[in-house]
């Protein structure tokens, strides 16, 4: 397994890993029912609109389908970020959706009303988790909401499940995620568990989705 000790090196591993999956047509998460449930959770718990158009950031947007749904359902200005340019989503019927090819930690165009991290945190190196969350907090306006969806550990422990190409997959626990966000002053407000309908190594796996508010 490839290992990298620097952040840019690991970003290249993540980019190349997902590039392979997209090129092989193996991005089963695109349009999956579980993905729709995360979108529903995010829109249901989005903050009330303030003056002007609601701004949404979709982190790790992939093909951009969720970005478009967020724009339509919230009549928002939605921006999708990704390390790859695989965007093929049709324009939204309501609101606007745009794509930026960049790393999340390099994005500074706040403030945002809503951040949606549907499956990115659990691919980051553990040492980057605090900086990842703190950067997101700086992008949120006061009262803004961050929705994060991650692999839910079927045990009481946080577990690393790396791929052979070096990309990390973490199985996270709710206390670990809540404590991580709390250290940046983000308060958990809503939660849901989504069944992945997937049996792996003797475990029936699920996703955890949490909403956090910036006070």
UniProtKB/TrEMBL annotation:
Name the keywords, alphabetized. Answer: Methyltransferase, Transferase
Q: Does the keyword Protein biosynthesis apply?
A: no
Q: Name one GO molecular function term.
A: methyltransferase activity
Residues annotated as domain Methyltransferase: 56-144
The family database entries (InterPro entries) matched by this protein are listed as:
Methyltransf_25 (IPR041698), SAM-dependent_MTases_sf (IPR029063)
One GO BP on record is: methylation
Question: Does the keyword section mention RNA-binding?
Answer: no
Specify the protein name: Class I SAM-dependent methyltransferase
